[in-house]
Amino acid sequence: MKNFTFKINENNYGVKIVSHENSTIELEVNGTSYSVKMKEEVKTIKTPTLVRKPASAVVEPLKVSNPNSGSSGSKIVAPIPGVVLSINAKVGDRIKENDILLVLEAMKMENSIASEKAGIVSAIHVKVGQQVLQSDIMIELE
């Protein structure tokens, strides 16, 4: 298993651990075999098991609040950095409140970006596959 060299009182000892079961260790010191029983059992580290609750069937779309929105128009900005997976609107489309405008992938999760209010799409500033940073303007509504 493992080899060690110990220096005790100016003498070198070659120690080879042959096996380890429960509290008994079989080892060789300079070629002589020994069986050593530990007073306390050596604790083994267990790997934690990740337990997740099942995903709910209904996924709420992510609503984006717009600090930059004025009375004349609304801007849909990226709530988190990610990659645009799909765009569900075109310039000129009439959008209702809570319509899903695009899907943004962030940290291997798909986030549906919904409109906060009704309007008409006046500009789309992103393409499918494009990376966006947080607060980047993606879509403008009138």
UniProtKB/TrEMBL annotation:
**Protein known as:** Biotin/lipoyl-containing protein
Annotated Lipoyl-binding domain ranges read 61-142
A Pfam family (short name) is Biotin_lipoyl
So which domain of life are we looking at?
Bacteria
PROSITE patterns, per the entry: BIOTIN, BIOTINYL_LIPOYL
Q: Which UniProt keywords apply?
A: Biotin
Q: Which PANTHER family match?
A: OXALOACETATE DECARBOXYLASE ALPHA CHAIN
Organism in which the protein naturally occurs? Mariniflexile litorale
